[in-house]
Amino acid sequence: MRYRLGVDVGGTFTDVLLLEETSGSTFRAKTPSTPADQSVGVLNGVTKVCTDAGIDPGQIDQVLHGTTVATNAILQGRGARVGLVTTDGFRQVLQIARSFVPGGLAGWIIWPKPEPLAKLEHTVQVVGRIGADGGEITPLDEQQTRAELRKLKGADVEAITVSLINSYANSAHEEQVGRWVAEELPDIPISLSSHVLPEMREYERTLTTVANSYVQPEVSRYVRNLDSSLKEKGINAPLSILRSDGGLVQAGKAAEDPVSLLLSGPAGGVTGAVWFAQQAGYSDFLTFDMGGTSTDVALVLDGQPRIGRETKVGDLAVRATSVDVRTVGAGGGSVAHVPELTKALRVGPQSAGADPGPAAYGNGGTEPTVTDANVVLGYLPSDLAGGEVTLDVDAARTAVATISDAMGLDSPEAAASGVIDIVNENMFGALRLVSVQQGYDPRDFALVSFGGAGPLHANALGRLTGAWPVIIPPSPGVLCAYGDATTCLRAESARTLVRAFNELDSGELRSVISDLAEVATERLETEGVPRAEQTATYQVDLRYHGQGFEIPVDLDPDVLTAGGDLLAELGTAFDTEHKRLFSFLLKNEREVINLRVTVSGPRPEVAWTELDQGSEDPSAALLNSSQVWMDGAHTTAGIYDRAKLLAGNVITGPAIVTEMDSTTLVLSGHAATVDPSGSLIIRPV
């Protein structure tokens, strides 16, 4: 038997899933996260899941890990002290940045401009210049460059970024400076912009590479510590890390290119959602992942998650390929409060986190949270995570009562209902960002919900969006770990080629794409994936001449290999996408800007599980009933054990379905049908 171990570390819980490939059987564990050292929580989960499965940790064949280490380093401002090397005259590239201020009119008055990740005093300039055509204009001055590098050595920088003008067209100067850096500042990690992001636009390329340097020492330490800790437990299996685009990369490579991991955690959930939605027969759906700290949403079209070219974490937006995930500060731990000035109820983005957590956890938390509101309404059972967490109902009511007192409401239930309504509207706004604002009608999609808190709110989000059915996969609280365990290795190669259509022919374009494909293929081959098992996808960034932005367009592999007119195909695809996004077309000449090739290995051959067939009657799984507050009054809801449900069972709301890692709420006027794949399919009655 072959075992794959999926691990996902969240802000509140660490999820571990052990998957046996032949049978598809799974064992899962959910343990509290350990922010001070995430590997501690991971090892706690590994110990628990191996004990439950009755196997020795040494029997694990692969460890697949989605991590938030890089994300947290950015959000918490605890990355490395970065030294930046720029071309003479470009020292203030990060300070000048882009003329963009978030918010409405006059937002600049109250917006604190974030500090660059590389300080101006840690930025040096070198003499030497490459032209936009890749030709050398001014040779490098070795003596001057080494003198500048010694200044960085005196500043005790912990990582170095080299980002020189036009290095995307010719990387020779950057590579030479990199060699001098290695001599002058040995044992300090170096990031070259021509390797991290070989694309035009100096600011974006520099910012992305600096971000890579900023998180590199932290990620390297974590990967190294986790790998050694796993080996100490007898797990000698290779460790792979999930990239932001949903693919895997070996741990050593991940430590070299950590900027590609910024959305590692959320990408695992989208990958897992695809896995289960396909089993239930759905290929177009929205994903809704609600955890303890935040909610992540994405859109999947024809079984493929939409991929974006910008990764945003806090105030930082870098150019890195990632699943187009939008995040809002709404989770089970989101704190509800009533500002004294407005007396208007607010929920989040502040979170109680894992320590002390919601008041109901009994760990000293006193602030009312979304979890406390669900407890007061009766939507959560007294035990969570298979008995790992016991809820304190009285503490939850006391905390939520501070809201009802502040607003003059007649009961904690009324306040709790308001908290739930507001957090649902916040998450509805995030779903609109990936659907309506991208030109898609959410009513044309299903809604796949997961995360520890997602299934509690999924039915309400289906009602708000009109996205039916709502699908709750098996083990929704550890679905991100499931996604980690069922995805594949992936590599990417990119290049800038600024050329108008009338200056380019299909043969030249095909040749450049083939060269990029060869680079990505070789990269994946070195990670142990034979060429015969690799598949490639192609993407081209296009724009109208004169536009200041590009639109990524997918290129059909069949067109590439059939010898057809690539430019004609790309032009048609670009027009279709431009009209969908903006509802108009221009007569301007089209331009190619960037080319990208992504090569993937095979997905693991994991068996799909299928439930035994039953009737519509779910009474065999009924545990008991309980009073819940719904539609403004107390009513009785049946409580069902999900592990005892059979395919074809129909649960009519109001009802609560419990399992080890999550709780599903079925609202009145709705029913959940158990799919043979194990997913709950919720629709209005």
Could you please describe the fold and organization of this structure?
Helix 4 (142-154) packs across helix 5 (172-184). Strand 25, helix 13 (454-465) and strand 26 form a beta-alpha-beta unit. The chain is an alpha+beta fold. One of its GO terms (molecular function) is 5-oxoprolinase (ATP-hydrolyzing) activity. Residues 205-491 form the Hydantoinase A/oxoprolinase domain. Pfam families: Hydant_A_C, Hydant_A_N, Hydantoinase_A.
Q: Mind sketching the topology for me?
A:
Blueprint: E1 3-9, E2 13-20, E3 26-32, H1 38-53, E4 60-66, H2 69-75, E5 82-87, H3 93-96, E6 123-126, E7 129-130, E8 136-138, H4 142-154, E9 159-163, H5 172-184, E10 190-192, H6 193-196, H7 202-232, E11 239-242, E12 248-250, H8 251-256, H9 264-280, E13 285-290, E14 295-301, E15 304-305, E16 307-308, E17 311-313, E18 316-318, E19 322-323, E20 326-328, E21 334-337, E22 346-351, H10 370-376, E23 383-384, E24 389-390, H11 393-407, H12 412-434, E25 446-450, H13 454-465, E26 470-472, H14 479-485, E27 490-500, H15 506-525, E28 535-544, E29 551-555, H16 557-562, H17 566-582, E30 590-600, E31 622-630, E32 633-641, E33 650-652, E34 655-658, E35 663-666, E36 670-674, E37 680-684
Parallel strand pairs: 1-4, 4-11, 5-6, 5-9, 9-10, 13-25, 25-26, 32-34
Antiparallel strand pairs: 1-2, 2-3, 7-8, 11-12, 13-14, 14-15, 14-20, 16-19, 17-18, 21-22, 23-24, 26-37, 27-30, 28-29, 28-30, 31-32, 33-36, 34-35, 36-37
Helix pairs in contact: 1-7, 2-7, 4-5, 9-14, 10-11, 10-12, 11-12, 12-13
